[in-house]
Structures are given as C-alpha cells and as structure tokens.
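From the shared-data thread, chain only:
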Amino acid sequence: MARNAPRVVLQLSDQEQGLSVTVHDAPYGAGQVAHVVLQRLEDVLRMASQPTFHQDVGRGLFRALFPGPLEEVYRAALAEATVQGVPLELELRFDRPAIRVTRYPWELLHDGTRFPLQTGALTLRRALLCPEPPPAGALRSPCDVLYVAAHPADQPALVPQYQALAEALTMPLQFGQLDLACLLPPTWDAFMDWLLAGVPHILHFEGHAALTRTGRLLFLGERDASDPVDAELIAAALRGGALRLMSLGGAAGYVAPDDLPAGAAPWLVLAGVPEVIALQGVLPPNEALTFWQTFYLALLDGQPVSGALDQGRRALRRTVHWHIPAHFARASEPLVGPRGPLNVRLDTAAPRTGAVGYPLRVALWLAGADSPLPSAEALRRLIGLRSVGWGEDEAVPAPVPCQARARGPLSAGAVEVRLAAEGCTVHTPPVRATLSPGSEPLPVWFALTPHQVGTVTLRFAVWQAGQPLVEATHLLEVERGDGTAAEVTLLSHHWPGARPEPATVRASSIAPPAEPVAVPGPTEPETPTLTAADAAGTPSVAAADGFDAALDEVLAWLKTASPPPPAPETGPPPPAPPVTVASSPSVAEHRSAPPRRIAGLRLRDWLMLIFALVLIWVAVAVLVLWY
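Structure, as tokens:
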C-alpha cells in the first residue's frame, strides 16, 4: 500500500435514534456528522438467498454510510486516490456500544455503479478503539504460525485444510521463511501448554465461534464436544508475546450466522489482539485454500496485513465470495483519556500446592477498586486447574485481603508486569499492557517450574515509567508428587489510596472459606506475608485428614499464641481484635513473625487443647520408661 494514500476514517457511534457517522479524517470534509438508521441485521442476512442480494445490500449500506453531503467526502477522496493510482483506504471505527454494527457486510458497499472493493479501488477495515497502540513494522522472517483445527462433533462438519495449506506453502517452508505447526490435540489445555515455549506471530484458528456476551471460539473438549472459550481469555493468554495477527476461518457446507468466526473478531481486538482476518461467510474449500495461500504469500513478501488481504481478495475477484474475508484491527490512534492516578487493585491467583519439577501457571489481574473478582472460568483457563463441575455461575474462592508494597500510584498508560520466584524457573517473559480509566480487569499469566520443596514466594512487580511502583507477594507450597492441585488461592492486594472495602463473596467448593483478615491502614505496619494454606483458610478439625493433622495444628497454635488482653474493670467488653494470619512453615519463621492473637476459645477448643497436652505427657512418659 502507498504510504500517503488518501484515506477516509469514519467514526460510527450508537445513538438512541440510530447511528451517528462522523468524518474523523478525510482529504475533504473532516468533522462532518450525519445521523442514520440501519436496516435490521436479521433482515439483511435474510436477503442472502435473493439473486440481487449483493447489489441491494451494498446500495443500502452505501446510502447509510454516506448520506447527503458525506457522499461528496467519499467522491472527492476517491477521485484523489484515482489520480494517484492507488486504492482509497476506508476505515470504519466502532466504539464498544456500536460493536454489533461490525457484523454488517460492509465489504458489499456499492456506490451506484460498481463494488469499489471488488474492483480494487477501495480497501476497508474495521477498527476498534483500543488503548494499546498497534504494533509497528511488518512481520519478519521466519514467521511462526500455529494452526489450530478444532472440529467438535456437535458442530457442523468442517473441511480440514491444514495439510493442503502446508503443501501450498512449500516454498516458504523450505526456504525458512515460515514455521508452520499444527496443534494436536486442538484443546485449550494443549494450547496453553504450547504457549509455554512462546507466543506465535500468527494464530490460525479453523473452527466455529459462538456469540454470547462476547465472542467465543470453540475448542475441542471432552468426548470431542465443543469447549467454548471467551475471546477475552484467548487474548489474555496471548498478551505480551509476539502475536501480530489472528486468522479465523473454516470451510463448511452450512454454518449458521452466529457460528461464523467473524463474530468473535471484534472482541478479540478489544481484548488486545492487534489484527484479525476473519471469514464472515462460508468459503468453498478450494476458494478458501486459494485465499489463504495468496494472503500468506503476500504477508511473507513484506506486505502489511491490509495489503496482503487485498491480494487475497483479488484471487477471489471472479467468484461470488470476494466480500467474505474481513479485516479487524485496533484504531490507528490510541484512545485518549485522563492520565491521573488510578484506583487499582491487584488480584493474584495460584494453585495452593505445586509439584517439584512440574510447570504450573499463576495469574494476576490489574483491576479497578470496585471491579468484580475474576470468574471461575478465568481461574480455570489461565491457571489450568481441571476441577470437575465448574460453571460460569460458580462463585470464586473467597479472596483474602492483604497489603501490597507501593512506591507510588499507578496511572493510565503502559505498564509492565514481572514475576520473580526463588528456586523456580519462570518461563514467561515480562508482560506489557496498557491501563485506562474505567477499563475491564486486565489479566496476565505466568508459567513457572519449581525446583525445590518448601514455601516459594512469588513476587509480582508492576513497573511504570521505568520504576517498580507496586509489588505483591503470593506464597506457594511446593511438594513432591505429580498430582494436579484442585484448589486455588485468591488474594486481593491493596495499598493506601487504592484499598476498597473487602468484598463479600460466596465460598466455592474448590477451596475452603477464608478467615477474615484485617487490611491495615496507611499508618499501620506492613502486613506479614501469607502462605497458600493460610490464605485459603484453616480447615476445622472435623475436616482434617486425620488426627496427626489436628495435633500439628494445635502445636503450631501453641507456639504462636499469646494471652488475651485484660478486660476493663467497667463497661462492656471491647470488641475482639482482628485476626492476623501469619506464615508458619517452620519454627524459625514463627519466632520472627508477629504472634497470632486469641479471639476467644470455644469448649471444643479447650477439650482439644487438654487432650493434646495429655497425649504429649503420655508420649514423654513412654519414652522415659522405654529408655
């Protein structure tokens, strides 16, 4: 594409009376605004069986997009592009409330005499306002492509095309320009395991999508059934790596409109994927192969994504399916907002226990003070717990409020999240992201492998402007064995100026309920670090595995207990002080940690204490008599 090609940027915003179209950038007429009403999308798609579908829909979309004086803006820009001998670049920008409008077949625009996109006079892309700027520069060789072909048995049959595409790209494969790999099996767990070695430059997904609150892609699940994964979680898994593009395709005999991959494309871009090429209709297998081959060859030749898409569309020009490939990208200008301090909360989650020599995943969420907690699905997907019976509406573990170290407030803008853990190999590099006011919780994840038994301190650090502004610690118990932990610990880290009231949530069956923990104020000393076991709550004696566990718990309590404060002579008794949970992996750490305070003992506790003391004396007497 020419560097200074004429371009027209239209901002589409959802209004109560219809749609607002604003000329954001153009050689002539920038700043003009028009209000239009679109035909219902269901009615538009229902016209697909009519012989004049393309012309009728194309003319209607053109009149809606360029009403009255806005048509003059288009004609003037098109004339200038024609004089220069380059195509006119048309960019349609959508804010989040208008995301439903992205599903209209805008590629069918008909200006009354022709389809400009089909003739090559126009290029079109849908842009979503995203705070992160798009990556600069073209793809470099060798290009790493991961091909995921998910064909669940409960969905319409797809024509597998990996082998045919690999044969069509033999030359770049042989000359080392392309590294093409196929994910087997095409499951979410296998996908996350693959990402341990690094994020590919291009992710090609061949399969189905589903439209819910946001778009979802269907991976292969148990018994070859569909496993829908939210687009936000897919983008979170790919965040911070080398990903430049996602390709969404699939060739089937029949696909319902809600099953088309293009439905998930805008949500992927909003969640952080730089660019997406998606099919908004069904391509026959031979035409799909021709398109993808031409597209990837142009991309490897140094063309930008828009130029490679134009080459691929040219290969379909003599067919009736030339309008099906669609281009989704971030807005060329980042979203501008206030740059003051943000009231941010850090939520960290990790398995309660890990095994020596086995990789595991931990996650962190940069969230607003009043943002909801991570969902059960997010914990399961990003951390990799394979618990049975989890559902979307299942409550997450009760979070444990604690205090983070902060050198200053976090502001809107770019941040970098780093993880350090002694005695562990951290496989994931630092993750870069962008904070913006009022944005959704921003998840990042890390993979690590512990190499020693004991308590490992995970140290999450959030850097901004070259300074480590916030540090949060999360303890992990490492044991010997090869089992996968089925419980998770969730900590909510606050600091002065960014500390909301602790949220009250229902405890999930995947972890015991947590004890209430007092969040210290700005003038109080730093809260001691938490072990994974303490953070998830101390189980009762009845729920313990055996008597030995109960006895160890009582002995640990005896080492850290201190007598309660004396009661006043008059007046009602003062309220019990808050319980501060402290780490207790060893006697040495007990001596350095603040003592645990007694908030009151019940009759069962006194009986257990007396019973434990009697057992200790009996054990001592037996040892004396034996020797």
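The radius of gyration is 29 Å.
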